[in-house]
Design a protein that fits this description.
Length: 591
């Protein structure tokens, strides 16, 4: 078998001519990536054609080719760039969505009511697409693929789908219907001080449908990522935001803010539709890339119930920070919930971008553990932590230094006033203090669940963080308002990150904690100096755009000069991909 070496010296995936149509033969093994046409990201050099087989035709079990070697750094960098490009596109569309919401409905009672209903898709995203269901399903699919590679009878991957998808679909449907029926109680508990609960109830009943659509989208996303296909899963937020924006402008005049809730429901259906062709195509193939033939499907145990319970409880606890924020903010003056929401959405962009690599590498870690290669899993998680922490600290410095310019440029138009800009910028600066904790939590929790075994420690760590969030928020909301609630959020998630890092040695991938902490020292110092320098540079220009450019450039230069990104040689492929992405964004934004 011919392989192409990765940048770290490990063998890369064997290349081939896979057409992505599921028919015909191949001259090599299909690379595990998705593209817009054939679903293949080419490797470094092509493999020579295989000679035609002789002798009797092999049985379906015997005809399966050996499983792909671990993905090379080159492949991971390309997959990260693909995911990054679509994630940035989704983030930009998310900003357009929030700008449209602010422009059409302002930051008052109507948007507060909709944002209560927005809690449903927020929770569904965390529980069913990103943190919750993915932590259970990706290791399960990785284990099924490992069994297939070892020559297990039947087709373990399709057996896993047959044993889990119908039950989960029934559960999603039941929960969504129950939420629609209980919408009045849901709104009363979540926001008892809301001035217009009827509008929030209507919006909640509409968004309840996304429990089913997001659940199916999350299932498809986990299956495709486990097979190292990233295009369709990364595109789901693009099509979702398109659905919300289109609904607001098409129906906002007649339905008001209810149009945004309808857009959430329609966007959920689009998330399923954009992944369905890739998922069906993947399940119809065997490991050698040819269209599957009729085989006996070996029974596969259903998902581990304790594992599913732990991952869903962790995700529920993490997302409950939003519930605490909105509960406490519902008693503050009108607009507080909206200011918190807009500040959080912008502040979390650096965190989202910094954890994109983990989205790509989580299936790699899960497969390494399924193969018993703990050392490879540890090295991958430690590299992810180092790169993600440095990127989020650079982004945090930019957010804190240029908060007024960012919010003014993005939102100050229509019904969103200068007062709303000042209030939101102040809250966002406080939120940003928790971005490192958010990022470390997102990376570290994957090391606990990547082995596909139940562990309650992450749930306990997140529970401690939630208790800190609640206690600090209840204490500071009255005196500090929305900024006090944001500070509570930052304190709670930072505590969770510290506890998760402290517990990795015995319960998760055995990380070298001392080395991880020492690696954070220099970028933290660089960010601390870059913030005042960037704020000073951003202040004089009267234009928000000019101030943002001046402040952002100053933050970046100071951060890099002070060694905010040491050890870049370990991340050359990912950094090259990031540089390419930044150039493309600059071309789009400033041409």
């Amino acid at each position: 078998m011919t392989t192409s070496p990765g940048t770290d010296g490990t063998p890369g995936p064997e290349t081939g001519t896979g057409s992505g149509t599921g028919s015909g033969t191949k001259t090599g093994t299909r690379t595990p990536a998705d593209t817009g046409t054939g679903g293949v990201i080419p490797a470094a050099r092509p493999a020579p054609p295989r000679p035609a087989p002789t002798g009797p035709s092999p049985t379906p079990e015997a005809s399966a080719a050996p499983e792909h070697p671990p993905p090379t750094d080159r492949f991971l960098a390309r997959a990260t760039l693909l995911t990054a490009s679509l994630t940035v596109a989704a983030a930009l569309l998310g900003l357009v969505r929030d700008q449209s919401l602010a422009r059409l409905f302002g930051a008052g009672r109507d948007t507060d009511a909709f944002l209560i209903a927005w809690t449903v898709p927020e929770f569904a995203t965390t529980l069913l697409i990103e943190d919750g269901l993915a932590f259970a399903l990706i290791p399960a699919f990785s284990a099924a693929m490992a069994r297939r590679a070892r020559g297990a009878p039947g087709e373990p991957v399709r057996a896993l789908v047959a044993g889990t998808l119908p039950r989960l679909t029934l559960a999603f449907t039941a929960v969504g219907a129950l939420l629609a029926l209980a919408a009045p109680r849901f709104v009363a508990v979540l926001a008892p001080g809301l001035p217009d609960p009827a509008l929030a109830v209507d919006c909640t009943r509409i968004t309840a449908s996304c429990v089913l659509s997001f659940g199916l989208a999350g299932y498809a996303s986990a299956a495709l990522r486990a097979h190292h296909r990233f295009l369709a899963p990364a595109a789901i937020y693009v099509v979702h935001n398109v659905g919300v924006i289109a609904a607001m402008y098409a129906l906002g005049g007649r339905w008001g803010v209810r149009s945004a809730a309808f857009g959430v429901a329609a966007g959920g259906c689009l998330m399923v539709a954009v992944q369905l062709p890739s998922l069906v195509r993947e399940l119809r193939r065997r490991a050698d890339g040819t269209r599957a033939v009729a085989v006996t499907v070996a029974p596969v145990p259903p998902l581990d119930v304790p594992l599913l319970a732990t991952v869903l409880l962790f995700a529920l606890c993490r997302q409950s920070q939003v519930l605490i924020e909105r509960f406490l903010a519902s008693g503050l003056p009108a607009g507080a919930i909206s200011h918190l929401n807009y500040a959080q959405k912008v502040a979390q962009i650096p965190m989202t971008l910094s954890t994109m690599l983990c989205t790509v590498t989580f299936p790699v870690v899960a497969r390494a553990l399924a193969d018993g290669d703990t050392e490879r899993a540890r090295g991958r998680v430690e590299r992810d932590l180092a790169l993600a922490a440095r990127l989020v600290l650079l982004g945090t410095a930019g957010v804190v230094a240029c908060a007024p310019q960012l919010i003014g440029l993005l939102f100050q138009r229509g019904a969103f006033t200068a007062g709303d800009t000042a209030a939101t910028a102040g809250v966002m600066r406080v939120y940003a203090l928790g971005l490192l904790g958010q990022t470390l939590t997102g990376v570290l929790v994957r090391s606990y669940f990547s082995a596909g075994r139940a562990t309650w420690y992450p749930v306990a760590a997140m529970t401690a963080g939630i208790a800190a969030t609640w206690g600090t928020g209840a204490w500071t909301a009255g005196s500090r308002g929305a900024a006090g609630i944001a500070a509570a959020n930052a304190a709670g998630i930072t505590l969770t990150a510290v506890l998760l890092l402290a517990g990795t040695g015995r319960r998760g991938v055995p990380l070298r904690t001392g080395s991880v902490l020492r690696g954070l020292g220099r970028p933290l110092r660089a960010a601390a100096v870059a913030v005042p320098a960037g704020g000073f540079a951003a202040g004089p220009p009267s234009s928000p755009l000019a101030g943002l450019v001046a402040g952002g450039a100053t933050v970046t230069v100071v951060f890099l000069l002070l060694g905010g990104v040491p050890g870049a040689r370990d991340h050359v492929p990912a950094l090259r991909s990031l540089r390419t992405l930044i150039r493309r964004l600059a071309h789009v934004l400033f041409r």
